[in-house]
Design brief:
CATH topology of the largest domain: D-amino Acid Aminotransferase, Chain A, domain 1
CATH superfamily of the largest domain: ATP-grasp fold, B domain
Number of strands: 20
Strand content: 15-25%
Largest sheet: 8 strands, antiparallel
Number of helices: 15
Structural class: alpha+beta
CATH class of the largest domain: Alpha Beta
Oligomer: single chain
Length: 450
């Protein structure tokens, strides 16, 4: 097992990784920007290194600085968390070439799944269902029009190198297609330096279902169940839960079997998530995230498995400790992402934390890097905490979530806690009858579409 791990991230996920490391007896190295000098992950780590100025490209995306920090602290492995360099194949490749262990998938798998077009082609060969579409990159409106005539409108145009909802545009009919195609290409170029886009059929009322996997280097695959991530704003998830209220065991088990077989065929290593749209009893693969997910805690709550710890053990060459057939999820868990933003306008709200009182009680967990006096800088992602609750039933879980949101106090900045309270109070959320378009409809009209 490793003696020292460098955590190439910040905020709540850096704190989360540190905690698993310390429970395993592993020393930690925190890297930080100037703005994060007094952040909680820096305070908790065994040692810390400043890697640059505040903009991410000068610090948390600064590969030479991070690797230099690993070198001077004698770290043996690097955990990238999520975001920043977590799905950067070049970073993983250089890390391993320099003799450090990258706690994540192989560079080849990161590269394959990072290209959405190639990922779709690959999973088709592994037997996973995909959405009808172009099957490859498009460059001209005429070609796009031909594809749309075959699959029918509406369609969604996506960036091949995309993520986080960037480079995605919907065309509801032929009059919108050319403009949507140009917009998607321009946005993809600006965001990823790659203007390749592809087209898929735009599903009307899907759920967003993802399957959590853990794989070791000995051929073992464990499926840790699914998560429902359908409540999204601009393709950004804000509430996630497991199990999905929309699925039955008769639907999920065949999906788990196919995902496990895909992992074996790939020879996948580490934690990963296969993401699907689900509509009318059918699953359609959309992408695979080759990293730890923001919403991993809900899976941990129902399985009792520390996913970060398993990532580290797999990277050290150990076998998975949990066989798929021995994993029995218990109860229900829901996560709310607490963002530093205005709950109405969604304008970012950086600043100094004055009061911080997280909720507690049975079945309540808060992952955060906040404390009274902490500074929320304006340079990074808005998520500052995650509220995760667990209950024996979904109804109990929802009630516990409502209570925990009432208790949660963060002052000095604005947060989206009031929005979560409104959502949790709706009859549709309590019934679990929502789709990926529901939150958009709620924000526009004050009620869910179902």
């Amino acid at each position: 097992m490793f003696k020292k791990v460098l955590i190439a991230n910040r905020g709540e996920i850096a704190v989360r990784i540190h905690r698993s490391c310390r429970e395993m007896g592993i020393a930690t190295v925190a890297v930080h920007s100037v703005a994060d000098e007094h952040a909680l992950h820096v305070k908790l780590a065994t040692e810390s290194v400043c890697i640059g100025n505040n903009p991410p490209r000068e610090s948390y995306l600064n590969i030479p600085a991070i690797l230099s920090a690993a070198e001077i602290t004698n770290a043996e492995a690097i955990h990238p968390g999520y975001g920043f360099l977590a799905e950067n194949a070049k970073f993983a490749e250089i890390t391993e070439k320099l003799g450090f262990t990258f706690i994540g998938p192989t560079p080849a798998h990161i590269r394959l799944m990072g290209d959405k077009i190639e990922a779709i082609r690959a999973v088709k060969e592994f037997g996973l269902p995909t959405i009808p579409g172009s099957g490859g990159a498009l460059s001209e409106a005429a070609e796009a029009a031909r594809i749309c005539a075959e699959i029918g409108f509406p369609v969604i145009i996506k960036a091949a190198a995309g993520g986080g909802g960037r480079g995605m545009k919907v065309a509801h009919d032929a009059t919108q297609l050319e403009h949507a195609l140009a917009m998607a290409q321009n946005e993809a170029q600006a965001a990823f330096g790659d203007n390749r886009v592809y087209i898929e059929k735009f599903l009307q009322t899907p759920r967003h279902i993802e399957v959590q996997v853990l794989c070791d280097t000995h051929g073992n695959v464990s499926i840790l169940g699914e998560r429902d991530c359908s409540l999204q704003r601009r393709h950004q998830k804000i509430i996630e839960e497991t199990p999905s209220a929309a699925l039955t065991d008769a639907e999920r088990e065949p999906l788990f079997t196919r995902v496990a077989e895909a992992c074996r065929n790939m020879g996948y290593r580490g934690a990963g998530t296969f993401e699907f749209l689900y509509e009318n009893g059918q699953f359609y693969f959309i992408e695979m995230n080759t990293r730890l997910q923001v919403e991993h805690p809900v899976t941990e709550m129902v399985t009792g498995i520390d996913i970060v710890s398993e990532q580290i053990r797999v990277a050290a060459g150990e076998k998975l400790r949990y066989a798929h057939e021995t994993i029995t999820p218990r109860g229900h868990s829901i996560e709310c992402r607490i963002n530093a933003e205005d709950p109405v306008t969604f304008t970012p709200s950086p600043g100094k934390i004055v009061e911080y009182v997280p909720p507690g009680g049975p079945g309540v967990r808060v992952d955060s890097g906040l404390f009274p006096g902490a500074i929320v800088p304006p340079y990074y992602d808005a998520t500052v905490a995650k509220l995760i609750v667990h209950g024996h039933t979904r109804a109990e879980c929802v009630a516990r979530l409502a209570r925990a949101l009432e208790e949660f106090v963060i002052t000095g900045i604005k947060t989206n806690i009031p929005l979560h309270q409104k959502l949790v109070a709706t009859k549709e959320f309590r019934a679990g009858t929502y789709t990926i378009h529901s939150l958009t409809h709620f924000l526009e009209t004050g009620r869910f579409s179902t």
